[in-house]
Amino acid sequence: MKLRSVELALTGAAEAAAFLTDIWGMAPAEVRGGTHYLRGSGGFPYLVALEEAAEPFLRSTTFVCSGERLEELKRSVAAAGLAARPVLSNDPGGGEGILVELAEGEVLRFLAGAEEVEPIEGRDLPVKLTHVVFNSADAEATGHLVEQALGFRVSDRTKGMVFVRCNESHHSTAFARAGFSSLNHIAFEMEDMDAVMRGIGRLRDHGMVPAWGPGRHGPGANVFAYFIAPFGPVIEFSTAVEKVPEDYAPGAPEDWTWPPNRIDQWGMSDKDFDGLRKAEEMFRHRRDWEAASLEV
Ligand SMILES: [Fe+2]
Q: Where in the numbering of this chain does the VOC domain appear (predicted)?
């Protein structure tokens, strides 16, 4: 199971695509039916889809998996009683699978048979997405739900977050204890720490400073730099998230405390709590499809 892409709907899709390609550092993949698809250097045909809409919302977050894993998912999703339906992807790479709505409206899409493309060169391109994080009214409940309904595993719990993995990467998603439901942020995996730092430099050329970072997180130990994108959402340059074994023992909030004046391992950066919070409220979840039987 791998995290592949996010599908965003928003006003000003073309401008958002221009920012992500010209400044952030993605490569255009394709424009199809008015939707802009942007890719990184890795084998996924796209990482971000930008669809023009009257107001912003997060259409879906897409994972790719084997046919066998998809069949397991159909059974566990149906058993959990979640709203879901079979789906054929019209996005680059195609594939067939299911759409699933979690308890707070988060729409996840799981595809099998989605095609990959040849990697491309580019040391300032993101390689892939490394995580997509959601705000939750009840992050604890959602952590349990994704374990039960999706076979994901909680890696760590902190005062602020429930970190969840779907493969050996410490987390591919997380649920923030926010008190409301929305997209928290999208994190791009950069080739190495230098690529993160050069990204900060590139944005600085355009008058943008990190809303938080550079720094190194506790859980996952990844390097980060968060920005508020001109088109609204919080986006992150990240690299080197930890890999964990199958039997990794999940940490509890009391295992993940910081010394005074620290909220990351380095302590070199301020965090714009208010700006980030406002940006996190922009992309809400929306299900514009009817649930249907998964025929399991
Ligand atoms: Fe992150």
A: 128-240
Tokens of 3: 């995290």
Is residue 161 within 8 Å of residue 263, measured between CB atoms? no
Can you give the residue ranges of every domain in the chain?
2-114, 128-280
Topology given in CATH for the domain delimited by 128-280: 2,3-Dihydroxybiphenyl 1,2-Dioxygenase; domain 1 (3.10.180)
User: What is the Å distance from ligand 1's center to 292 Cα?
Assistant: 33
Give the Å distance between the CA of 296 and the centre of ligand 1. 35
Distance 264 CA to ligand 1 centre (A): 12
Say what the pLDDT of residue 295 is. 80
Please give the distance, rounded to the nearest whole angstrom, from the Cα atom of residue 131 to the centre of ligand 1: 7
Question: How many A from CA of 171 to the centre of ligand 1?
Answer: 9
How far CA 14 is from CA of 38, 44, 125, 214, 257, in Å, comes to 11, 21, 19, 29, 42
* Cα 67 to averaged position of ligand 1 atoms, centre (Å): 29
Going from the Cα of 98 to the center of ligand 1, the distance in angstroms, rounded, reads 26
Give the predicted TM-score (pTM) of the model.
0.98
- Tell the CATH topology of 2-114: 2,3-Dihydroxybiphenyl 1,2-Dioxygenase; domain 1 (3.10.180)
Rounded to the nearest whole angstrom, what is the distance from the C-alpha of residue 33 to the centroid of ligand 1?
A: 31
- Note whether 2-114 and 128-280 share their fold: yes
Q: Per-10-residue mean pLDDT for the chain, 296 residues long?
A: 98 98 98 96 98 97 98 98 98 98 98 98 97 98 98 98 98 98 98 98 98 97 97 97 96 96 96 98 97 88
Question: What are the distances in angstroms from CA 127 to CA 38, 118, 173, 177, 232?
Answer: 12, 12, 17, 28, 22
